[in-house]
């Protein structure tokens, strides 16, 4: 996921998205809800459509709900305007 962050910071958005998707697939194999949520949040930030953004934000919320991370869920609401 860190490589995706670097690509995003360099405005290489297609590369960042591909790296985040690769990280997400790896985190889902473990599974690691904390990191799954962060991968989805980063993908939501790069989403090209509102529907895709909502889908990733909701997936992050579900992942973090499963581990009781209400602080991160609140962060989603603050960033994306959703509860």
How does this model look, in words?
The protein is an all-alpha fold and 83 residues long. It has a single domain (2-80), classed as Serine Threonine Protein Phosphatase 5, Tetratricopeptide repeat, CATH 1.25.40. Helix content is 80%, strand content 0%. It contains 5 helices and no strands. It has helices at residues 2-9, 13-29, 33-46, 50-65, 70-80. Helix 2 (13-29) runs antiparallel to helix 3 (33-46), helix 3 (33-46) runs antiparallel to helix 4 (50-65) and helix 4 runs antiparallel to helix 5 (70-80). The chain is globular and about 30 Å long. The model has no long low-confidence stretch (mean pLDDT 95).
* Unreliable spans: none
What is the percent of helical residues?
over 70%
Biggest sheet descriptor? none
Write the element-wise H/E pattern from the N-terminal end onward: HHHHH
CATH superfamily: Tetratricopeptide repeat domain
Spatial separation of the terminal alpha carbons: 25 Å
What is the number of independent domains? 1
Q: What is the level-2 CATH architecture name?
A: Alpha Horseshoe
| Strand content bin | under 5%
Arithmetic mean of pLDDT: 95
Question: How many helical elements?
Answer: 5
Shape: globular
| Count of extended strands | 0
């Amino acid at each position: 996921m860190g490589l995706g962050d670097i690509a995003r910071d360099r405005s290489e958005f297609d590369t960042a998205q591909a790296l985040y998707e690769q990280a997400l697939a790896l985190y889902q194999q473990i599974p690691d809800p904390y990191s799954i949520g962060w991968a989805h949040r980063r993908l939501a930030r790069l989403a090209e459509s509102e529907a895709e953004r909502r889908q990733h934000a909701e997936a992050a919320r579900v992942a973090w709900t499963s581990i009781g991370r209400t602080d991160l869920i609140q962060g989603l609401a603050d960033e994306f305007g959703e509860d």
